[in-house]
Design brief:
six-stranded antiparallel sheet, five-stranded mixed sheet
Length: 703
């Protein structure tokens, strides 16, 4: 068995085929003649069977045509003529095909011609006249005509009564009967051929009835009687004609003239079929004789074939076992067990198949792990509260997906003149903290850029001097444009040799990295949009500090936090002194410029935990967590000095200085709620205004 498994299956199969051919050739000469006879017999049998089937189709077409024509004669339903219409073309075509198949058999060809002649005679002498008779007398037409004649007689009698005695009641009866008869004739007109004389007469009668149906009391009786008489004459004449046509149809139905042709058709068909059946039986017998000859010749080969089969079976058993192991492992992988592998014990094609299976299973396991990690990363990115957290998540997962690589995420600065390093991983070499967007081919092209150094690829200029083996740069894009790039570098081998991944591996890595970059770019864009919307909802657009809505939400929260931690909290409220006069002097645009610069100064001056809000107009509030009353008052005075020293220019001209009046309150001394603190600080502000402005005052008692 080991000797066989060392040879390729193709070689073993070729050797078996050579032996099989040599043995088979010896018996081929014996059975060739028998096979030739069998084939000829099969062709004759097939041709005879086709002749028999064609004859059956001809009989079936004739029977369908006769049944359909008979059904139409009885009912007048045109749908029953479908079989008759189809037979008009099917019977001649079948006859032509039968003549081709029968060839020189003049007897059978003559019978076919006789069948066609009988069918043609039936069509010409019976079917066409019966169809024409029924079409001239549609079913129910005669009865409807008789009913119309009775109605016309009643109408004429009513018109005569009206002509004799007059009266509106008689006239109403005349109009009603005229309308009813008109509707009756309208229904009959639908079943009357448009070109027939009856259609013209019905139309004339309808016109007369239309006049009678709308006759007024002032109408003369004589014309109405005349019209009724004419209508009665028309209807009676056509009722008699319809009765005569219906009688002719009934005569044709009882005469059954087409049955004669059917009775003559069937014996010819039976004689034709008996002849073909006899011919078919003779051909089948000849084929059986040839088959027995072939079977006898084949008996000489079994011994050799059995030996070859036994030898092949011994080898096929081992091959089947190996294939079964591959199938079992494949089913395990299909069930989700990606750890299944196959032992490679053969050197033939099956062994190569097992090796290829193991490689495929390893790739599937790797891709499944990558897909799971990418999915986890997507979920974490969606849950990230900020861009920094999203970049941290992306860094962790990229290191798991691309172990041993060096990379980072660069984000385009607001000035659009630099890409700044926002996250990085890997320790093989350091990435530059920033670079110009023109230094990256991915940013220039707007497409992922993969370079293989071993294949003389062109590197981006922002890469470090320590050349990587391969590098991937993928743009992070959104609907608003390019946000930055995701960079992945595959370091060179420690000895300095470039150990670049294969072309297929680099393509696979590029596809995976593109999936990651799409998700990271989308997450960053969504987080930026969320932060922008949040800022728009809580920031004052002019000064950039928080708005009054944010103050109302935050102040109560900070007071509760101070209560839980038993910590102090300070609050400053200040107003720009005589700012209306400032606006009147310099203009409102200059006033807005001053407020804008004031907002920038406030954002720079206070701590990150402090809350600076524009309370309204030129009034501002500052919340200072963990600040005592003394420190808050000190910071208020310092703030007043900063406002006084604030120098602002508008259109190149310096604006005059202004001062601020400030009120200070503290928790818990001046109140336990935001509203109480604001009232206390506002009262202190009012006192500062009264005491000469440009000063800070502290609240004295709880409000």
């Amino acid at each position: 068995m080991n000797l066989l498994t060392r040879h390729p299956l193709r070689t073993l199969v070729l050797m078996g085929l050579i032996v099989q051919v040599l043995v088979t050739t010896a018996g081929a000469a014996v059975i060739f003649r028998a096979i030739l006879v069998t084939r000829q017999t099969s062709e004759r049998v097939a041709r005879t069977s086709e002749v028999r089937n064609a004859a059956d189709r001809m009989l079936e077409s004739f029977v369908d045509a006769q049944a359909g024509e008979r059904a139409f004669l009885l009912t007048g339903n045109e749908r029953f003529l479908a079989g008759y219409t189809d037979a008009l073309t099917a019977v001649p075509q079948t006859a032509v095909r039968l003549a081709d198949l029968l060839g020189g058999d003049t007897v059978q060809v003559g019978r076919v011609r006789r069948l066609v002649s009988l069918y043609t005679q039936w069509c010409d002498q019976a079917a066409r006249s019966e169809i024409a008779a029924r079409r001239a007398a549609p079913a129910g037409y005669a009865e409807a005509a008789r009913g119309a004649a009775a109605e016309a007689a009643r109408l004429r009698q009513t018109a005569a009564a009206y002509a004799a005695s007059g009266g509106e009641d008689s006239l109403r009866v005349v109009r009603a009967q005229a309308a009813s008869l008109r509707d009756h004739l309208t229904g009959m007109l639908r079943t009357t051929p448009p070109a027939s004389p009856a259609a013209t007469d019905w139309a004339r009668a309808q016109r007369l009835l239309d006049v009678m149906a709308v006759a007024r009391p002032a109408s003369a009786p004589a014309p109405l009687l005349t019209a009724a008489t004419v209508v009665e004459a028309i209807v009676r004449r056509h009722a008699l004609a319809a009765g005569a046509a219906e009688s002719r149809v009934m005569t044709l139905i009882t005469r059954r003239s087409g049955q004669v042709f059917a009775d003559n058709f069937r014996p010819v068909y039976v004689a034709f079929g008996v002849t073909e059946d006899a011919r078919l039986a003779a051909q089948v017998a000849q084929g059986r004789t040839a088959t027995r000859t072939a079977e006898g010749a084949a008996l000489a080969l079994p011994v050799t074939v059995v030996l070859l089969v036994l030898l092949g079976f011994s080898h096929a058993g081992a091959a089947t076992d190996a294939i079964d192991r591959i199938i079992e492992a494949s089913r395990g992988i299909a069930d989700g067990d990606l750890s299944r592998r196959v032992a490679v014990r053969r050197g033939d094609e099956i062994g190569q198949l097992a090796t290829a299976f193991n490689e495929m299973a390893e790739q599937m396991a790797t891709r499944a792990r990558q897909s799971a990690l990418v999915q986890q990363m997507s979920e974490m990115l969606e849950a990230s509260p900020s861009v920094d957290e999203a970049l941290s998540v992306a860094s962790r997962y990229v290191q798991d997906l691309f172990p041993g690589t060096v990379g980072g995420v660069y984000l385009i600065a607001d000035s659009r003149d630099a890409a700044e390093l926002a996250a990085s991983w890997g320790a093989a070499f350091a990435l530059p903290p920033a670079f110009a967007p023109d230094d990256c081919w991915a940013l220039l092209r707007g497409l992922p850029y993969a370079v293989d150094v071993q294949r003389d690829g062109v590197l981006c200029r922002h890469l470090p001097t320590q050349r990587p083996a391969a590098n991937l740069c993928l743009p992070l894009t959104s609907q608003d444009g390019t946000l930055g790039i995701l960079q992945l570098s595959f370091p060179a081998a420690p000895a300095g040799d470039v150990a670049a991944p294969s072309s297929a591996a680099l393509d696979s890595a590029l596809a995976l990295a593109r999936s990651i970059s799409d998700r990271v770019g989308l997450a960053i864009a969504n987080l930026r949009l969320r932060e922008s919307l949040r800022a728009q909802s809580i920031r004052d657009p002019l000064t950039g500090v928080f708005n009054r809505r944010y103050l109302e939400e935050t102040l109560e929260r900070e007071i509760r936090r101070a209560q839980r931690g038993e910590n102090p909290l300070g609050l400053i409220i200040f107003d720009l002194d005589r700012f209306k006069q400032f606006n009147d002097t310099y203009g409102h645009e200059a006033g807005d410029t001053f407020l804008r610069e004031l907002g920038a100064m406030l954002r720079d001056r206070f701590r990150r935990d402090d809350v600076v809000c524009r309370y309204g107009g030129e009034e501002f509030v500052v919340v200072l967590p963990d600040a005592t009353l003394e420190s808050t008052l000190q910071r208020a005075r310092s703030l007043g000095e900063a406002v006084r020293d604030l120098a602002v220019s508008y259109q190149g001209q310096p604006l005059g200085a202004t001062t601020a009046s400030l009120g200070v309150a503290a928790f818990p001394q001046h109140g336990a709620s935001g509203e109480a603190l604001l009232r206390a600080a506002d009262a202190a502000l009012y006192r500062a205004k009264q005491n000469g402005r440009a000063r800070a005052e502290a609240a004295t008692t709880p409000i």
